[in-house]
Structure prediction request, 166 residues.
Amino acid sequence: MKWPGFAMARAGAIVAGIVRWALPPRCPGCAEPVEADHRFCAQCWGQLRFLDDGGCARCGIPLGGDAVGEPWCGPCMARPPRHAGIYAAVAYGPIARELPIRLKHGGRIGVAETMAGPMARRLPPRAELLVPVPLHRWRLWRRGFNQAVLLGEGVARRTGVPMARG
Prediction:
């Protein structure tokens, strides 16, 4: 006997509710329960410093004051980076350090979706293609996934910019 569509939907909603109760969404930074997936608790959110276009023209680090033109920070003036146009989405800190470690070495692949949000906001409007960095076959075999591909898929989904597939 086949269940009517509404009965299946209702059963699915009940199961989803039980799962949410038993396994509530957790903060990606500290694992405290939060209201929804890919959300940070107030304490971890306060430790994140999101970077925007108001920073160094080379590295993106925030600059104080009203800078004009394309200002550079002190470290970039002293030792210019080899590659221009590479931007960070979040300033380095305890939470920003922990998330990639959990993704790469902890197997927490859901963290890639969390990280893709800020990365998508920093993607230059002229971007035409996302190219994930290839992972050595032994690392791919050990890890079971390429974290750059997971991040790229999340950014591509949010921005509509296509991602190169190997």
In short: Residues 5-22 form the longest helix (18 residues). The mean pLDDT is 83. Helices lie at 5-22, 42-47, 74-78, 94-104, 110-122, 137-143, 147-159.
